[in-house]
Predict the structure.
Amino acid sequence: MHPNIDRRKFLTKTAKVGMGVGLASQLPAWSAQAFTQDSKRVGIIGLDTSHSVAFTKAFNDEKAQKDLGGYKVVAAYPHGSRDIKSSVDRIPGYMEEMKGLGIRIVDSISELLDTCDYVLLETNDGRLHLEQGLEVFKAGKPVFIDKPIAASLAHAIALFKASEKYKVPMFSSSSLRYMENVVAVNQGKIGKVMGADTFSPATLEPTHPDLFWYGVHGVETLFAVMGKGCEEVKRFYADQMEVVVGTWNDQRIGTFRGTREGKHGYGGNAFGSDGMTDLGPYGGYRPLLVEIAKFFDTGKAPIDPEETLEIFAFMEAADESKRKKGQSVSLKSVMEKAEREAGKLKI
């Protein structure tokens, strides 16, 4: 059976996950709510990441309202990881900083959802995203879920299933996807992309699969230019860095290099039919925030959910390759296993 057909069957069985797959021509359920131009209140879940403060400052900057749609952060629920020390230790300081920005700090997600129309799920701990996301879906609030979308592929699948079940739009992305040169490649700067090599920090967190915690940024950069269609992954691991090689179904090859020592950076190179280009430098959060504002406006995710799931299948396959001492692992096998696990989850 052709691999693309396998992939389509998988995603069909995961409840037609995409806002852009089966629902693009339909009005999302939340549009029936009595939102007005003034109903652009944004709530944040999770103050264990610097993103929460940075995103708030950007959205609430009066000078920024033209390209950020008039959305404003009004409230935040601080938790957040409760057992990842590097995250937990940040919460008190970020709470005070948010208070200084005039943001209301609430005691529960339920209370947050009563104060806002849209949600930024910023909790740094991907293990909590399914539980927290379900509260948001049940309340009918469109949501952007920051990286990692979850701490397992099964939970990522379940989130898309829940989005479909409750008819509430969501999407997730790294801001690295919107680097200027990545966008230029997607607009045809080097013709057809024949291959790409990307890099980013890949520091580890024991509670998450290796690449989910930080390597996800470089992996998303890879998929942003290569697109979906990766069939198998082989991982070469060392304590200080690693290289993961993916083979696509049209025989293109893409690589990700993750660093854990030395000077870190973000970027890569893309190789096309009409030339090649550097993918960096990283230009900050603003292009992603513009996409989030557009998403809040339309309810349409700018990224194919199938691609988002493939990114996480790539990383989960990389973990399996590590366990198998660098053997190749098919994404199909990883997806099928995760689908079975997702089917056992209550949404």
Q: What stands out?
A: The radius of gyration is 19 Å.
